[in-house]
Input
Amino acid sequence: MSAIATKTLLEVRGLEVEYGRVRAVDGVDLDIASGETLGLAGESGCGKSTVANAVMQILRPPAHIVGGSIRFQGEELTGKSNEELRRFRWRNVSMVFQSAMNALNPVMRVGDQFVDMMQAHERISKHRAIVRAGELLELVGMDKHRVRSYPHELSGGMRQRVIIAMALALNPELIILDEPTTALDVVVQREILQEVEALKRDFGFAVLFITHDLSLLLEFADRIAIMYAGEIVEAAPAATLAESPLHPYTQGLLQSFPPLTGPRVKLTGIAGAPPDLREPPAGCRFHPRCPHCVPENVALYFRQTSERPRLREITPGHFVACHLVDA
Amino acid sequence: MAQLDPTALDLPLAAPKRGIRVGRIPIPGWLALLLRNSKSRTGLLIVVFMVVIAVIAPLISVAHPNDFNLLATRQAPSWHHLFGTTDQGSDVFSQVVVGARRSLLLGALAGAFATLVAAALGITAAYVGGIVDEVVNLLTNVFLTIPAIPLLVVASGYLRARGMWTMIAVIALVLWAFEARILRAQALTLKNRDFILAAKTSGEPTWRIVFGELMPNMISRIAAAFVLVFYISLLVDSGLEFLGLGDMSATSWGVTIYWAQVNSTVLQGEWWPFLFPSLALGLTVLGLVLVLAGIDEVSNPQLRTEHRRGRLLRLLFGRAAA
Amino acid sequence: MSVLEVRDLSKSFAIGGALRRQHVHAVEDVSFSLRPGTITALVGESGSGKSTVARLIARLYDPSSGAVFFGDEDVAQVRRRKDVLRYRSQVQLIFQDPFGSLNPVKTVRHHIERPLRIHDIVPSSQVDDRVYELLETVGLVPAREVADKYPHELSGGQRQRVAIARALAVEPTVVLADEPTSMLDVSIRIGILNLMLKLKDERDIAFLYVTHDIASARYVADDILVMYAGQIVERGPVEQVLAEPLHPYTRLLLAAVHGERIADRGSGASAAVDPVEGCRFVSRCPLAIPVCSEVTPELVEARRQHAARCHVTAPAT
Output
């Protein structure tokens, strides 16, 4: 995978989203090239799911976009009418979220739910839609006869596969996976992600993969963006991020996963807790938890606690927002 | 993860934000919450107004509101008789303000008794389960199947003592079962929450879990039950008196309306003995209903109408987002 | 020397109506023991019965059969309130969900003070001081300030620390930690695990660490128990089990977290409904031989202190 985007599919610039008076997303820039997997990692409440919902334009009040632009294939999404957005969703971008497997209608057969969804977007006979649903289920590694099943007859992993098959149904250019496997067991999780990877090779869609589990992204994403307290603090190709993380938060996150091999060393994690976004810390939002933010280093400390670091490109493709790197 | 909003799970009335101070008066958190909600604020204002009227009633009314005064019968409202006089010449204003005492006291006491019984039985049954639950369930079902209105009519019609206490007892007896059922259902959803199990593993005795751990979590539901029984008993009490089944020698809104009706005052163009007690009753009930709606909204954030315009649009055109 | 011993513990739940009554065997013949100053990890997927084991030991459920020995008495049979209280003062449970395990309408102080008072751990006059001391032990400072907060004023990590302080209040010898970190943010999980390590050393507590995260089990635990469909399928010192797993299920789990390609069409590790004879894992097992679907394997010690329930890799002698 080249670090340089071949053709930009999604371009987010300066996105700002507020929940009431709380700014959950504060100036986020993102690019996704066609066929690329971008990982977006961060802890709960950092705004990563809000970014996804903003891209899908499914923010629910009190959440609303207050600034920035979201362009998909060069077309501005903010300010589109509901009807335009309805056609755009699923056809161009589809989404699989964590609780999606519970979003299936419990009293409808799986196949009929496919029919409903497809008929909402294109003229297709019921019979053809069912056949297509069977094909899609086979694509995600299920028996095509499962179209006749009711959701409660399927395990959590299978239901999540059904949702992924639905997301594929209209051949979208971008699929957003928002914690798609968090509720599932490790073995099932890995199988599903393997399948998504294989499908991606065949169909060439791009993926925005949102999770709190950085270790999954290191494996499945081409590029990774790390969010903290509503901002992107670091973005780089996966391999670069794993080898030379620059932001102390990224370093801390990578230090938070105990290894399965090698010597058992004492880990430290990150002290403290993510900030309350109603009153984010002044300056760098990470500074209260940052091990490199000490009053002894007067000049740097002053900058860290008063000036917000900007996201800058340090080496080609590697962006970071940190005063330590500037210095 | 992100969907797990702890404040949505909790009951804000019971674990409110810190209290605030207005000047030197400390206001507890739950009251501050209720005052911030426009519905309950209006409702509380009305109820407090009625309570103040009831408290100062002896100061602003004649000593014996039911006294005859054949020299001043059927007078229209005037500065001398603010709400006019009845066909017996009694001062309607005095009857209304003194009647407020009885109505509010009766409602509050009936509400308190019914809620107390309902909470104690309902929550204990839910938590303890087993045979206790079966028995309480049977009891509530029996009381629920009793046709309330006829029982009230019969009880108040034939009981020798027709005083306020009889009324309170009868109303509480009929209404506790509704609340017990609601509170039991809510306690059932709470009893397997981890914090109850944790209290159990730390060795808390049952009564402490019921009253110390479960009940405070249901305080908004219990408060709602109290307010509900409060205004239902107001309505029931006045209704029975209107039918002539109450204590006809008492001073109350229902009795005033009853005599107005018996003497067909409205037909003779005398609207005041009818209107003012009805207005007082209506206003009090409205106040209580608003308080109830406020409690509901505060304790169930999904009902809050902060974004009125958005909500209205969604109601009109259905959900915009699929 | 073990402080708590679980022997052939089983728990089944009845499902279905009176006519077609079936039993889900959530826990089947589970045996292990906990030693002071060690952490024993109980690893399994959701539905494997691992949390049920912890709750059985904590006496939140009564076992269908089997025994839990604390000292030399079977606590599953204890009924008298005084004896139950004594057990509760020795064995404490920490819940998975820190948002659910604290009473939302009570302050932090209440949560820690109650066990102190119920079990008369310290005289009334010293309760406050002990509360602050406990809060400091779990790293919640300034303790006096934290004590008067409500749970919703704390972050998830802080709440879990309160839950740990509550468990420590009674000075227990055994702490059952039921997935104490799975609901927490990644960056603060290590902090909780480090706290467990510290308490194990300083207070000689025997921990049962229930988790689905095998890497964190390796980080804190001395011994590991792997559970699948209600049974313990492998048991041994954590380093040895992870380095040379015997049971095919343990191998599958490790492959999944190691990031190896796996080919498995599993249906999860849920407990069996009215199970028949045979290995629970047979339908997913790459090593299965005919005997596997006929005879339920026993837990056999194939290496020193390292046992597995598998006809192929740990055959009965």
User: Anything to note?
Assistant: Residues 241 and 269 of chain C are 19 Å apart (CA to CA).
